[in-house]
Amino acid sequence: MKFDDFLQIVGKEPLFETGLLLSDDVDPSDVRRQLSRWVATGKVVQLRRGVYVLASVYRKQTPHAFVMSNVLARPSYVSFRSALAFHGLIPESLSVTAAVTTAVTTRRPESLETPRGAFQFRHLSRRLFFGMVEIDVLPGQQALIARPEKALLDLVYLTPRGDRPVFLESLPLQALDSLDLGLLQAYADRWQSPKMERAAAVIAALARIEADE
């Protein structure tokens, strides 16, 4: 495959996987060898095995970090402080670090350092893999992101003593009046956990205090 032909296939994609290049009349080994050469010459950037972006001079759009996160670990959705910052519940500058995108996956937990940013994936069981929505993050790019209620509960669940008022009050939370408290409670109920019930009650109380101020 010539590089110009390759660009015709992937040039409009923010990022791509090896499978996009494979068809019945293509030798997979040859495709992988060519990708390795293009990575070595800087024409293609490898994010992880099988996942790539074009070098900036060749690509037509830059992939959003949330889109990359969704592809780097399947299945996954953006959550925790990254999603809370996206929804405006915490200042973006305080979402741990803007350089790290945090997400939930049903796969094993892992942290990835790539040429396009850092990503952290926390594990949740399939039973708790819910509460996300597909959102346009850039024109032509969609990502699965936790609803704000679920992002907050995910953070509580995977934080030791995350249901304690001292922890929740220490978070730089804002715009709590935008939360759907009914949905928050419904999500907490699905955990069937006293910890999550306590957390939902504390969060609801903080939201009501903010609304009264």
Walk me through this protein's architecture.
This protein is of the alpha+beta class. It has 2 domains: 3-54; 65-212, no CATH class. The protein has 8 helices and 9 strands. The chain has helices at 3-10, 28-40, 65-72, 80-86, 148-157, 165-170, 181-191, 194-212, and strands at 16-17, 44-48, 51-54, 76-78, 100-105, 110-114, 117-123, 132-138, 141-146. The strands form 3 sheets. Strands 4-5-7-6 form a 4-stranded mixed sheet. The protein has a 3-stranded antiparallel sheet with strand order 1-3-2. A hairpin with a 2-residue loop joins strand 8 and strand 9. The longest helix is centred in the last third of the chain and has 19 residues, at 194-212. The termini are far apart. 31% of the residues are buried.
Count, helices: 8
Silhouette: elongated
What's the β-strand tally? 9
C-alpha Rg (nearest Å): 20 Å
- Whole-number average pLDDT? 94
- Bin the helical content: 25-40%
Report how far the terminal alpha carbons are from each other: 64 Å
